[in-house]
Write a structure and sequence with these properties.
The structure is a homotetramer of 129-residue chains. Chain A has 129 residues and is α+β, with helices and mostly antiparallel strands. Chain A has one domain: Thiol Ester Dehydrase, Chain A, CATH 3.10.129.10. Chain A is 18% helix and 36% strand. The first copy, chain A, contains 2 helices and 5 strands; from the N terminus they run βααββββ. A 5-stranded antiparallel sheet of chain A has the order 1-3-4-5-2. In chain A, β3 and β4 form a beta hairpin. The first copy, chain A, is elongated and about 45 Å long. The termini of chain A are close together. The model of chain A has no long low-confidence stretch (mean pLDDT 96). Chains A and B meet through loops of A and loops of B.
């Protein structure tokens, strides 16, 4: 999983756009998280949640090149890597069809917290074994 | 509180609109809930939450007459009444400025649930005493 | 199309839930609209939009029976019918897996407006021919 | 206006949280945009919109230190500066009450586009004169 590129599709609905006609900028953070949840596994995240363990976004950097519009099917391309024992970095790109440049690019740093909000060693989690 | 009309204001931002140019229809349910949370009291809801008690929407009926746009300040007018011991009905209206008719009207039925999802007598709650 | 039941799937992500642990009530209006957009056709809605024609929600009635949670795949079952020449009613049900009752049920009335917000005869639209 | 710190308040409602119990990370981009819209002026943005002129987020960098919860009143502190003729940078901080560190910090770069998506000189806009 780590090192491979995941492909995940997001359809753009009315709810995603704003009155400027394109997708509201904050929504890309949602699309990238959908891709990460799919990448990490829904059942795995549910199981971790039962133990009080969850991922939290620590830093996010986004670059916007082009606006997506209603009806688009964005392809989200994601790769992940560990950054030390306690951090994980996802690189995400949102591609519109027939485009030769990503519409939006992001680097998202995650940490993993237990029930008492203490940092956990991400690389020790079962889901990466 | 019960029987009186509460007035609550909601500013319309970019995030609230969709590419048709007006407020996305689902968002009015958010505005009405903001008004209810303000009506019931934030601290009161936090305190109930600590005991595992929360309100849940059981039925919602909305009528849309006019679309609000970016920059509008909607006035939300809300009244509440008990409907038996276990239900509460909020009537909400969203008014645009200088309008002679409510833009959106809603009746929202709430129930109150404890930690085990059992119905509680709403009229017995301390916040209504 | 009219009269048939459409099946549409919605995955529940972190973004869909609130701190009570279940899906935020307003989001079902989004899921039902996603299903309607899929039902009516994205390209058809884009083409109508270019002519300044769009659908607008006129009335919405929702009944909530059960809360969906993170990781759920809701099956949205939708049927549509005309109600006179100017209105269309969608009946939507959101089903959780392995459930014997719909989690949320809704009736959504739509009208169709042109660029000057005048009502159009829905049954005359090309997409229904 | 440029150089001064704007103070803007955001109340945290149920809609803002997710099932982890704290505010969903993407929502801070909304709060910061609300502050920017308030800063730039709603009527000014409406007037620019009528000429087909609008601001677009070009880059966003966010650091998350602490999660806000239901009932919080976040104080958003914003400052703006020009970065050359075509870019504007907003620095935003979201502060929880009684905290000695900002919960979330962001730098947001904006460009200004006309109807044909051509870059405009931001510093030439009437709203900055």
């Amino acid at each position: 999983m780590i090192g491979e590129t995941q492909h995940y599709q997001v359809r753009i609905f009315y709810e995603d756009t704003d009155h400027s006609g394109v997708v509201y900028h904050a929504n890309y953070l949602k699309y990238f998280e959908r891709a990460r949840e799919d990448y990490l596994g829904y059942q795995q995240l549910i199981d971790l949640g039962k133990e009080g363990i969850g991922f939290a976004v620590y830093k996010a950097e986004l670059s916007y090149n082009e606006g997506a519009v209603f009806g688009d099917v964005l392809q989200i391309r994601s790769t992940a890597q560990f950054d030390g024992d306690y951090r994980m970095i996802f690189h995400h790109e949102a591609w519109r069809e027939d485009s030769n440049k990503a519409a939006v690019i992001a680097d998202i740093q995650l940490v993993c917290l237990n029930r008492t909000k203490k940092l956990l060693k991400i690389s020790d989690l079962d889901i990466f074994k």
